[in-house]
Amino acid sequence: MACLLNAALPLDCMNALGGLKVAYFLAGEITTTTVNGGGEITDLIGTGSFYEYQLAKDTAFYSESINVSNVNGTTFYQGELTIVLQKMEAAKRNQILLLAQNRDLRIAFVDNNDVTYIMGLSRGSVMSAGTAATGTAVADLNGYTLTFMSQEPQSAGILDGDLAGVVTGITIVNA
């Protein structure tokens, strides 16, 4: 049977951090993915550009639910990335309009432990919700909250290193 367990898992040290630092949205395509024996992505070959979206501290997160149907014999992973872009302005609004219309986003993001993930690798991601708000009080958010969703046959890919070291043929446009 191919799904037999093959490793024990020890209790880790308490040294992980929550939250995300940065997200990258791909305008282009990934044609080839190479994975090492540990399951980490070592090469993403494609065309286009990853555009960097810098994120303020403590405003962004990724969660993933594992959906299993014993009756149907199916398993899929639903990822949700939520980011906040502070300050409402035309340039951000225009990019959000394009993100909202895209049916096939590939999104890489870096967490506060310096681990880089990619969501929507095989089936793409879409913007599933978003709000723009001016806030009421002077300390309230003036900006955008965006949620992106993917439904994949595997959990979000973990890159073996940073995005720049893994991509081939794809440029990274920093903010």
Structural class: mainly beta
Quantity of strands, as a count: 11
H/E element sequence: EEEEHEEEEEHEE
Rounded to the nearest angstrom, the distance between the terminal CA atoms is 48 Å
Quote the beta fraction. Answer: over 45%
Q: What radius of gyration results from the CA coordinates?
A: 17 Å
The largest pleated sheet is described as: 7 strands, mixed
Number of helices: 2
Overall shape: globular
Q: State the share of residues found in helices, binned by percent.
A: under 10%
Report low-confidence residues grouped into runs of 5 or more. none
**Average pLDDT:** 96
Instruction: Tell me the quaternary state.
Output: single chain
Structure explained in plain terms:
The chain is mainly β and 175 residues long. The chain has helices at residues 90-101, 163-166; strands spanning 20-35, 41-54, 61-69, 74-86, 107-111, 116-119, 125-133, 143-152, 157-158, 167-168, 171-173. The strands form two sheets. Strands 1, 2, 5, 6, 9, 10 and 11 form a seven-stranded mixed β-sheet that branches. It has a four-stranded antiparallel β-sheet with strand order 3-4-8-7, covered by helices on one side. Strand 3 (61-69) and strand 4 form a beta hairpin. The longest helix is centred in the middle third of the chain and has 12 residues, at 90-101. The chain starts with 19 loop residues before the first strand and ends with a strand. The mean pLDDT is 96.
